[in-house]
Amino acid sequence: MLTLLYFFPSIIAFSRHHRRRTAINHLNAIFGWSVIGWIAAFIWALTSPGKGLAMAATAAPESTGDVPEHFAAQLLTDIVERDLTTRSL
Length: 89
Prior knowledge:
This protein is mainly alpha-helical.
């Protein structure tokens, strides 16, 4: 019974399919004997299992309609050509 209580944070992490479950298990196994190590592993196991700190990539936003895409592309092309001609002088 005490062994189950000792590894309770690891059990939670593996049952929730936490993406850092092996690290939680190592923390629990090595530092679980200290109260601070066990509490840290327990809290970490309760954090969101599938999400990290980075945000998921989303698709590029649609045009706002203020400037048509072909106009913006032509404007950018003109600026680059002008920059290239002024540098060559």
